[in-house]
Amino acid sequence: MPQPEIIVIGSGMGGATIAAALAPTGRQILILERGEHLRDSPEARDATAIFARGHFRPKESWLDGQGRAFNPGNFYFVGGNTKMYGAVLFRFREADFSLNSHMGGTSAGWPVSYDDFAPYYDRAEALYQVRGALGADPSEPPHAGDYPHPPVPDEPVIADLAQRLRASGLHPSPLPLGVDLDRWLAGGKTPWDGHPDTCGGKMDAESCGLAEALKYPNVTLQTGTHVDRLLADENGRITGLEVTRDGLGETLSAPVVVLAAGAVNTAALLLRSADARHPAGLANSSDQVGRNFMNHNASAMLALHPLRRNPSVYQKTLTVNDFYLDGGPYGEPLGNVQLLGKISAPILSSQSGIPLRIAKWITDRSIDLYLMSEDLPDVDSRVTVKDGQIRLDWRRSNWEAHLALVAKMKQVMRRAGFPVVLSKAFDRRTPSHQCGTARMGWDSTRSVTDIWGRTHDHENLFIADASVLPTSGAVNPSLTVAAHALRCADAISEGWT
């Protein structure tokens, strides 16, 4: 393999997207992934294996803020967490980039605007082949054109739900999705939400970003490679990566290094890389690495009518953003509502302890929703590392807004004809929307990277994942991560000229 000119750490949404964007430059690019390719198996469409037995969860534990061990919902495969994601590809709303007052505090906003990101959202939607439609969502920001593909069709029960919600005064709209429905269903009649993509039916980091990057002979993917630490010289340049592969250690190097391991592991790697010149970790002269961890406040909601069944297979095609920009007692934003992939009896039983027979009766009749509210940045909500062990002390914020969103949607669903409405908050084991641990900013004393993802402390080290997000918004972050990675690629490309 030729000497790499760019090393990308991680093959998830950020790493795959930046590799795809940089591939046409002709530079030798090496992508390092700690996991392997996710192969098809009977467990891939088995809800009991996925949700009850945790077949695809990592064999590792982190500590929470009280020092208790837990198994995180972080997935180590080629394609990263996107192999399991719900393929929801929202743009952040214009207001998400601005200073906002919330029920739980004030969000400081971003050092850039929506307009700065808009052309990159266009490119990201094209790369990930987003299905959607404009015109119905009251929070939708401006687009240069329509979505690349029409929306994934609603199943009959969901089309009926949309009519009921409109009759209640709301504005349901198609959920922007990266799903080739025919290809997904050809592999099995199941939801895709939370299920591993082994058929290419989801537009994930492997099937889109990596597939595009690997069309070029100058791009190489190396799996089974764990990056242990980064090395920096006296001038702050990253001079090497200590890695372990097949139980053997080696040191790799490249003129440019891109870190895209996810908000928790990116922060952990920088902290593990502490040395005599950087005792608090690399890129951490601001003492902000690992801080401001955010992970959406989220709940599952099941709405049912005892006399109506829901035979939907995938369900996840609808969103409601009427409470995204306001809805609180003084007009504060509350968050996003979207459908979950159809919850089955094994999923409900394993997550709630309800006997399987009762769980089946409920899920045969339920419509399943996912409610999501913004988590505000807090310097004490953080990732730390001690003796090689990751500790995630997530301190929820803005919980009042989430409770208000849950209460409003219970009223809405009852008004829409569902007399029984149940909800349950997601716990700390699912950091699937993790962000904020190496936030971008103009001020190097209060941020880790500049607005393009270049670290303030190391001129040849870039961060291309959700770590840099200054706020979490209240929509799924995947498309924003892809847009940031494309911006980061432009900065790297311009630096070579």
UniProtKB/TrEMBL annotation:
<keyword id="KW-0274">FAD</keyword>
<dbReference type="InterPro" id="IPR007867">
    <property type="entry name" value="GMC_OxRtase_C"/>
</dbReference>
<dbReference type="GO" id="GO:0016614">
    <property type="term" value="F:oxidoreductase activity, acting on CH-OH group of donors"/>
</dbReference>
<dbReference type="Pfam" id="PF05199">
    <property type="entry name" value="GMC_oxred_C"/>
</dbReference>
<dbReference type="GO" id="GO:0050660">
    <property type="term" value="F:flavin adenine dinucleotide binding"/>
</dbReference>
<protein>
    <submittedName>
        <fullName>Choline dehydrogenase</fullName>
    </submittedName>
</protein>
<dbReference type="InterPro" id="IPR000172">
    <property type="entry name" value="GMC_OxRdtase_N"/>
</dbReference>
<keyword id="KW-0285">Flavoprotein</keyword>
<comment type="similarity">
    <text>Belongs to the GMC oxidoreductase family.</text>
</comment>
<feature type="domain" description="Glucose-methanol-choline oxidoreductase C-terminal">
    <location>
        <begin position="390"/>
        <end position="485"/>
    </location>
</feature>
<dbReference type="InterPro" id="IPR051473">
    <property type="entry name" value="P2Ox-like"/>
</dbReference>
<dbReference type="Pfam" id="PF13450">
    <property type="entry name" value="NAD_binding_8"/>
</dbReference>
<keyword id="KW-0560">Oxidoreductase</keyword>
<feature type="domain" description="Glucose-methanol-choline oxidoreductase N-terminal">
    <location>
        <begin position="200"/>
        <end position="297"/>
    </location>
</feature>
<feature type="region of interest" description="Disordered">
    <location>
        <begin position="134"/>
        <end position="153"/>
    </location>
</feature>
<dbReference type="Pfam" id="PF00732">
    <property type="entry name" value="GMC_oxred_N"/>
</dbReference>
<dbReference type="InterPro" id="IPR036188">
    <property type="entry name" value="FAD/NAD-bd_sf"/>
</dbReference>
